[in-house]
Write a structure and sequence with these properties.
- This protein has one helix and 19 strands.
- By secondary structure, the protein is mainly beta.
- It folds into two domains: 59 residues, no CATH class; 170 residues, no CATH class.
- A hairpin with a 2-residue loop joins strand 10 and strand 11.
- The N terminus is likely disordered.
Length: 263
């Protein structure tokens, strides 16, 4: 695992199991000198970023502190496997999709680029898998405001969608806490006559936490998604490039409708 520790000096090098240590110097206008007693350790305008590479099979996975929380990056679509603290449970969190507006959804695939979940929770190396029209996220559950902030980073009410809503729903909700979030490339394949066609888009998927054991889902993207009409989104839904999404109105908390655009 690589840990990026901002503002550390070369004296902060920690020993790891046969680590490869490298230094990256980056310009930092916000860095302030550190004061200890009467001595000032002036770092100046240059910050030393220490990268400690642990010698394991996932050593190239980069962990950074993002603006809002703890964001981790995958390698070839795989996560850094963690067993989790005592008392935690690894869950198979299933998210389903169904075609709408006359479209027949054949399959969905998802390759995560980054993810976030509370410290101490377990996660599988193959953290996001797909089968037919279902995605499965293999990670523990614990509601977190930090994870919510990662999901909402750069986004707003008009660029996200909740899985289960009332009949008169609008693009006007944001989650309070989330169990986990994944962002990556999603591919939706639709049937067309005797053949198929696909649509690709970068999306975020996150699981919410309601009372009891009701777990809703959230999706969207600050770069690719928007509600054309936030006050009346029931015509187009959440539009994400060449795809449109609707919440699943019913008892199912873990499903979205999807259709290709233009119709």
């Amino acid at each position: 695992m690589k840990y990026c520790m901002h503002g550390q000096s070369s004296s902060a090098v920690a020993e790891a199991c046969d680590p490869v240590v490298s230094f990256v110097f980056c310009r930092s206008s916000w860095l302030r000198p550190r004061v200890r007693g009467t001595k000032m350790l002036a770092v100046g305008h240059w910050a030393v970023v220490l990268l400690v590479v642990a010698a394991d099979e996932d050593c190239s996975l980069l962990v950074v502190n993002s603006t809002m929380g703890h964001r981790m990056y995958t390698k070839d679509g795989y996560c850094a496997q963690k067993a989790g603290d005592s008392g935690t449970t690894l869950e198979n969190n299933v998210l389903e999709f169904e075609g709408t507006k006359g479209a027949t959804l054949y399959s969905v695939q998802f390759t995560p680029k980054w993810y976030a979940f509370p410290p101490g929770q377990p996660i599988r190396k193959d953290c996001a898998t797909y089968d037919g029209t279902k995605l499965t996220f293999r990670v523990g559950r614990r509601p977190s405001e930090d994870v919510r902030d990662e999901f909402m980073s750069g986004a707003n009410k008009s660029s996200i969608l909740k899985s289960r809503v009332k009949l008169d729903w609008k693009c006007d909700q944001i989650p309070e806490k989330l169990n986990f979030v994944f962002e990556g490339l999603a591919t939706f394949v639709f049937r067309h006559g005797d053949g198929w066609f696909g649509r690709e888009v970068t999306l975020r998927f996150a699981q919410g936490h309601n009372s009891g054991k009701a777990y809703n889902w959230w999706m969207g993207s600050p770069e690719t998604c928007h509600c054309p009409d936030s006050d009346n989104p029931r015509s187009d839904g959440l539009v994400c490039r060449e795809l449109g999404f609707f919440p699943y109105k019913g008892p199912n908390n873990h499903k979205f409708y999807v259709y290709p655009r233009p119709i």
